[in-house]
Amino acid sequence: MAKKNAFYAQSGGVTAVINASAAGVIETARQHKDKIGKLFAGRNGIIGALTEDLIDTGKESAKDIASLRYTPSGAFGSCRFKLKGLEENKLQYERLIEVFKAHNIGYFFYNGGGDSADTCLKVSQLSEKLGYPLQAIHVPKTVDNDLPITDCCPGFGSVAKYVAVSVREASFDVASMAKTSTKVFVMEVMGRHAGWIAAAGGLASDERCELPIVILFPEIAFNKTKFLAKVNATVKKHGYCSVVVSEGVKGEDGKFLSDQGMRDAFGHAQLGGAAPVIANMVKEALGYKFHWAVADYLQRAARHIASKTDVDQAYALGKKAVELALKGDNAVMPTVDRVSDKPYKWKIGVAQLSKVANVEKMMPRNFITADGFGITEKCRTYLAPLIKGEDYPPFKDGLPQYVQLKNVAVTKKLKEFKV
Fold first, then answer.
1. Structurally, how many domains does the chain consist of?
2. 412 domain residue, yes or no
3. Please, where are the H alpha helices in 142-203?
4. Under a CB-based contact definition with an 8 Å cutoff, are residues 191 and 218 in contact?
5. Residue 34 CA, distance from chain mean position
6. Does residue 21 sit in the same domain as residue 131?
7. What's the pTM value of the predicted model, to 2 decimals?
8. pLDDT on residue 408
């Protein structure tokens, strides 16, 4: 049997470690040249497949591919593009098959979150319905940590570390200024429906370094009266307070505090702006001087302070994806399975994509304190191992040295297709 080529693409919001997964996929594929021919990357995700805009990863040196492990963002470009059902947009699916046939692609690796898992599942179903043999493996990634079955998602551990470190450092700053100046600092973090990232802010305070932190989770309906009372009591007791607010916090009316009235490519509300809303609320009701910040891209791009646990898991899942494909698996996703908490141990498992696509994993209620403003010990036990370990990139002249690939385009064989 003639060996098939492979296609790899990155999708959705990128992370500090998605390129580590890419390195895992590419390096493992290169180790199996007897079974996998060339590995093409889609420029800007699945759009690269639809437009036949493919990148020949074989043109990259082994050194540069290895350097992906230390490089943030998506080396091949990502996209927010969700394939509709086969019957709704048959032309797009037929185009995918046309491109895969033209380039002898038999392996499909899609690196992304929940919407990407859905796309990967649809592509796997495509091979059956349109009679083209294709193995589709989803490589998990999402800073939101909301994919089901897997214990955690690559990208989350590093965001959690960045948030925990930032909240701790900012809290020290506020503490030093609180007597005559700022008394409340508000930091907005990502998390549309699940409060995993916001919860990480709770790690900033521990037995050795107790800090007054109030957390607002999407899972807990925002109550203005209770929140202001909590902040006021905290400032009265400690002299200052740090607030971590998830972008997805909703009021009791079910509306996002930060809904800008816009929608992204997936139809989701375009969020951003919960921090100033909360900060002004504190100022108007309590009169405390404040500062606020929106972590935004900084939290997911901070490879310089990535969690070693996260980097190791991201690479391992990329590697496992190729191994699963070579075994003949299809429509599956490698997972992180927690073996024990103390000492923290994990292994790689496998989940069926039909059980992953379009399912969100929320924060369990027992991970949130009774008053709804903090994390429990159970949550701390879960989170703490995920931010452990340092895996610094190489530095030169004070700056991290990240790789920029050549991304050489593959010669097109088909007519132009507009997405």
1. 2
2. no
3. 156-177, 196-200
4. yes
5. 33
6. yes
7. 0.94
8. 98
Q: Put residue 261 in one of left, alpha, beta given phi > 0 → left and psi -120 to 50 → alpha.
A: left
Q: Give pLDDT, residue 262.
A: 46
Structure tokens belonging to residue 347: 């292994």
Q: Which amino acid makes up residue 287?
A: G
Instruction: Look up the CATH number of the domain holding residue 74.
Output: 3.40.50.450
The total number of residues shown for the chain amounts to 419
Scan for tokens 């895996």, then name that residue: 391
Task: List the domain range (segments joined by +) for residue 317.
Answer: 4-142+305-359+392-400
- DSSP-derived secondary structure letter, 408: P
**Which pair of structure tokens corresponds to residue 143?**
């800073």
Q: What is the pLDDT of residue 271?
A: 52
| Active-site annotation, residues | 144
pLDDT of residue 374: 98
Query: Per the structure block, which two tokens stand in for 33?
Result: 């040249």
Eight-state DSSP code of residue 52: T
Q: Could you give the angle at the alpha carbon of 10 between the alpha carbons of 106 and 411, nearest 5°? A: 55
Can you give the CATH number for the domain in which 238 is found?
3.40.50.460
Q: What is the C-alpha to C-alpha distance for residues 259 and 125, in angstroms, rounded to an integer?
A: 35
Q: Is residue 349 part of a domain?
A: yes
Note whether 299 and 143 are within 8 A (CB).
yes
Query: In sequence order, what are the beta bridge partners of 54?
Result: 42
Instruction: Note the pLDDT of residue 269.
Output: 53
**How many whole angstroms separate alpha carbon 121 and alpha carbon 124?**
5
Q: With contact defined as beta carbons under 8 Å apart, do 82 and 115 qualify? A: yes
Cα-only R_g, the chain: 22
Q: Which pLDDT value is given to residue 128?
A: 81
Structure tokens at 357: 């696509």
Token pair of 286 as six digits: 């309590």
Q: Is there a single domain that holds both residue 297 and residue 314?
A: no
Binned average pLDDT, 10 residues per bin, the chain of 419 residues: 90 96 98 97 96 98 98 96 80 92 97 92 86 95 97 98 98 97 97 95 97 97 97 98 96 80 50 84 96 96 98 98 96 98 97 94 97 98 98 98 98 94
Sign of the alpha-carbon torsion through 384, 386, 389, 391 = negative
Q: Can you state the angle between helices 308-327 and 18-30, rounded to 10 degrees?
A: 40
How far is 411 from 54, CA to CA, in rounded Å?
8
Beta strands in 195-289 (DSSP E): 213-216, 241-246
**Exposed, middle or buried, 293 (CB in 10 Å: 0-12/13-18/19+)?**
middle
Q: Identify the pLDDT of residue 259.
A: 64
